[in-house]
């Protein structure tokens, strides 16, 4: 779909996603990272929309922005008391990290671009697919779906158990 | 077995018995057992005299022959040869019997003499033991019938001579002399042994008779040169034993032995053994070999005579005269005067033994003074010795009425005849040398007589430093410890006792012509020349030029000898020819020489010519002898010519003679030096090179082993250690990687991923 | 130019590659456990983008469904991880991962 | 019977093993008794031996019985090699004319050796155990008729010899022992190879399978035509002959391989020198006569001249080296090299006289050289030196010793009337009769003179003349006014004592008797020798030219 506006908007969101992700990684301040992560998620969600996966996009926004990100922020708050001004995290093995960063990204991209056989199939996804997701969920993917729900349950319980506060008796140490 | 054979065996074994008894028990017996030796030899003498009587006197037969043998070694059935046996045996003929009597007689006399001469010696008993074994082996040579046993006894004679020369072994000179004698004889024996080998390899037998028969039958398959070589090689044995050129050097030194030994061994018997041996093998000597023998003998006779002129030691003079006389005998054999040579052997044995024993008596009386320069005037003190010594000297010089005259003339006559037969030229050298030596003999013997017996005593002239010389010389203790004698007039010079005098008398009286021949001028009339006759040669057919001459043109002589008698081939049927000839005295003197006819052309010719030359020889030699004696008188008696001045005038010649023609020096410089150096070189070669190579190989191997070992140690084992070390270090390094920091692990994992990527992509590209 | 204007699958893949790289970088280098979690989220998102991109361009529903589950898992993971982080904080009084090397020997 | 005489010493060794090592005298007595019994057995065998049986090869019909005597033959090792067929080794003993003399000699010499070992003081027990082991091995080598068995004995022999030299030897003993050991081992390794090769080339005519029996190997018709060492395989037969010959020549020892001998002799104690010279050297030539030549007759015929030349080199070269020696024992060692040269020369003659001379020379050299070494040992015990120049004039002071030395020396230089002469004489007779070796014989006759030279020279330097100023003994005037000598630290009798006489007199008697009438020994040999010559001879035998 060679619609210029469409293209521009795509590049815009792509830029938002990538740069915010870069900021998440490179900023020393955890708070900033957390908030720039918000933008990354949004950008990703927008890209999902571009990929005509509206339902996923919505889920992304809900779950990530609404759930995970908040969790992360809580975590930040818990671990670093807000009063402490420095939320900076210092870094370790920078050089191998950078080498790998460049190397892996370069390698993957080279792979992608040296591969000329991407054939878009005749039946690309068009329009909303919520209905089809529902259909698939209840037909083909019902077992994974159930397992996922059980997993979530277990995760909730586990997380609650792990992160619960101890009795005043045994946190005196 | 014939009784004579048994007797001869007894005679042979008796001296051995004496040896065995004395060598083991001489210290236990009274008088050190000398009576045992004398008694046993007396018995042997009696037996052999009985044999002499029966054979020579009763059965007066030139062809007398007895043989007996037994199987010594049985080889079984030898492939390629058939049944093969080595037989030992005894061969008795006239010559044997005569030699037997001669040897036992002289040996007995020497035993008797030694009881006086050797009295008081430390090893008195041992001396008689040695004499016994010598007599045994000498008799063995005389009696044996084959080359092998004669070679064995030959060496045994050498051994006993070795023992007796070195009897005073404390004396360095004696020890050297005995070694020299044995080795020089060994050199001769090598040749003899090779000769024996040649004959054996042809006929597979050692016996004389078998060899002669095979030769006569023409079974000798090698070339004639080999036959001549065999003859000459066998003669080499004689050269060694009879001290002929060039192996004569040991005999003068052998005078280091006690004087009786010199008389017995080195004058009468052993040195004659060589001549006897050549006579035994005479039949197989080719003319070429005979020529060699003749020249060898002539040169020896001449050389020894010239040396004898200038010697001072009384025994050395006699020694060289012995060499010279042996030269005569060998010469005689060489020119084919078989019986004459043996005749001379016999006569010489007697008078030379007499001379030696006489000189022994003198030395004994002079307290072991041997240098003639310090003697003189002894005739007053020792009349018996003087008389016998002088008569023996005349015999040696060859004056008429003596035995030596007859034998020597017979030889010289044959020499002239030989020269004629061989066609003159160089062959006349032989008689000329012979006559010249006769003159020299007369000269030096006259000199000796005069120096020893006449004039005044010169003992006081002896320079002082000579004392130590002959003190050491007399150090063997056979004397009674008189060290400083001689300055006063012949202190204690006296005639010797009877047991030393009797032998002198007996031997001197045996040198009278009448013992051998009725005619003082012609030994050929005597019994000896009749009983011992030249054997028929068996090699006529092998001789090159003579055979051809013989076959091509049978000469008149051949023809007449044939018609005189029907064709004869062996001694035995030549005998009837001999007997009438002997009886027929009107046929003129020397029938027996001619009467025995030869089927071989050359021998017949020789016999004839030598007979013809008889009177010539007599005349010439008599003149020579007279010249010699008168020269001796001129020089030493009347002192018309001053010997010292003369010797100064002809100093080089004098020195040449005085130093014995420098033979010893020559051998010393060449053979001995060479052997010693070579042995040193080879020993070095062995120790350094051969063994060095071995050790070198060993060292190389060892180094290789070291290299190998170090390889094993440092490379193979090192590899193992290195692996361990590597694992260790890498482990240490890698342990550092295990930081426990999850992120580090992730980094590594990602590096792996990246690595895979790179690999994959490169695969993708290429 | 045509490459740039018409949005093909490569564009999405590129983006996801960048996200992945950044995520990995964070996981590798950051000491703060929270930031590491964020990196993980980035990686998950990169994965999601890939899933969806491929499923869009070949018209199958597999990718879509899978990304759905990924999100679910991410939620659960985040919850658990944060709980763990908090526990770690209680233990070590720090969320500095580098100081937590009790896995070493 | 043969087993008894072979294993008697080792039994004695086992008995000694049980004796406490403090009981030196008991140990010596036991060994002596064993040796004496061995001599008795040897005499019994000698009397029971029938000289008319030839030996060497099997009797007609292929069975050794009727040709060899005192045969003992039982299967010993028999294992299946799968592809290679069966390996059957027999325990096969027997004697013929060649070995009977060696058996007698070995018994005699080992007895003498025991007597002479009386003076050994160091580790007597171990010494005599090794000594008995050695005696067994030697005897076994001479009576073994199975190549493998022979090889086993041959190898066993090395071990005790090595220790006997290496432990009881002189100052430089390790070197000598190692040298001896390596040399002989070098030879025997190749022997092993040839042995295997022969095994697969020979068929026993009776049992029709491969065999190690020397009797079967000795007759050429038992060889498989195209086997590795079969008649067709000329090249390999030559190689095998040469290799085997070198193996034995080292033991002889032949010229280039002889240098172990002087060292071994100089270092070894007297009894071991006696054994070494008396018996071990004979094993080399015995091996040639028993194994090397009959198995490869055509090669032997082809190499006669070479063997003869080596013999001549041994004779002359050994004599010259002996002439230059200062050490008496070394001189004797070289003299025995020279004398073994006569054996080689006689073998090279390849006719009855030569072979018989060679075998008889082996026997005589055994007795004579044993005597020489004993005499050297006697003077060494007294003076603790063997330098010839350290003596002089001994004849005046030790008359008996001097007398026996004279006999031995003259026997060694081949004086007629003593046994050495006859053997040398027949060696020369044979060598001269054969056209091949005639010139060699002419050359090596020189050995007679030089042999006489070095022996007489040493005799003069040691015994004649008077005491040298630097002699190894002192001169003093005894109570009876006569001069005596005494060695510095020698307590025993000055002249020979009873034990030494007991060793020397029998040998002297043997030497003299065999020198005068050799038939007692030669009578045993002749049939076998003639047979051997026939076996070795090419189709047309040419001793005449």
Short description:
Helices cover 70% and strands 0% of the residues of chain A. With 173 residues, chain A is mainly alpha-helical.
Task: Characterize the structure shown.
- The complex is a heterotetramer of chains A (173), B (766), C (105) and D (545).
- With 173 residues, chain A is mainly alpha-helical.
- Chain A contains 6 helices and no strands.
- In chain A, α2 (30-50) packs antiparallel against α3.
- Chain A is globular and about 60 Å long.
- Chain B contains 30 helices and 2 strands.
- Chain B has a two-stranded antiparallel ribbon with strand order 1-2.
- Chain B is 70% helix and 3% strand.
- Chain B has helices spanning 3-25, 34-58, 94-117, 124-143, 147-165, 172-203, 208-216, 224-241, 250-253, 259-268, 270-280, 287-310, 314-334, 338-365, 383-397, 403-421, 429-453, 466-473, 498-509, 527-531, 544-552, 556-564, 571-583, 591-595, 601-612, 614-637, 643-649, 651-658, 663-737, 742-765, and strands spanning 65-78, 82-93.
- With 105 residues, chain C is an all-alpha fold.
- Chain C has a single domain (2-92), classed as Helix Hairpins (Orthogonal Bundle), CATH 1.10.287.
- Chain C has helices at residues 2-5, 9-29, 33-58, 62-92.
- The longest helix of chain C has 31 residues, at 62-92.
- Chain D is mainly α.
- Chain D is 67% helix and 6% strand.
- Chain D contains 21 helices and 4 strands.
- In chain D, the strands form 2 sheets. A two-stranded antiparallel sheet of chain D has the order 1-2.
- In chain D, α1 (2-18) runs antiparallel to α4, α14 packs antiparallel against α17 and α16 (399-412) runs antiparallel to α19.
- Mean pLDDT of chain D is 85; it is low at 540-545.
- Chains in contact: A-B, A-C, B-C, B-D.
- The interface between A and C is large, with 88 and 71 residues.
What is the secondary structure topology, with strand pairs?
The complex is a heterotetramer of chains A (173), B (766), C (105) and D (545).
Chain A (H helix, E strand, L loop, with lengths): L3 H23 L3 H21 L3 H26 L14 H21 L15 H9 L3 H21 L11
Helix pairs in contact in A: 1-2, 2-3
Chain C lengths: L1 H4 L3 H21 L3 H26 L3 H31 L13
Chain D lengths: L1 H17 L5 H25 L20 E12 L5 E10 L1 H20 L7 H20 L3 H22 L4 H27 L14 H5 L15 H18 L8 H8 L2 H26 L1 H6 L1 H21 L3 H22 L2 H32 L10 H4 L1 H14 L6 H15 L4 H7 L1 H18 L9 E5 L5 E5 L10 H19 L2 H18 L9
Antiparallel strand pairs in D: 1-2, 3-4
Helix pairs in contact in D: 1-2, 1-4, 2-3, 2-4, 3-4, 3-10, 3-14, 3-21, 4-5, 5-6, 6-8, 6-9, 8-10, 9-13, 10-13, 10-14, 12-13, 12-18, 12-19, 13-14, 13-17, 13-19, 14-16, 14-17, 14-20, 14-21, 16-19, 16-20, 17-18, 17-20
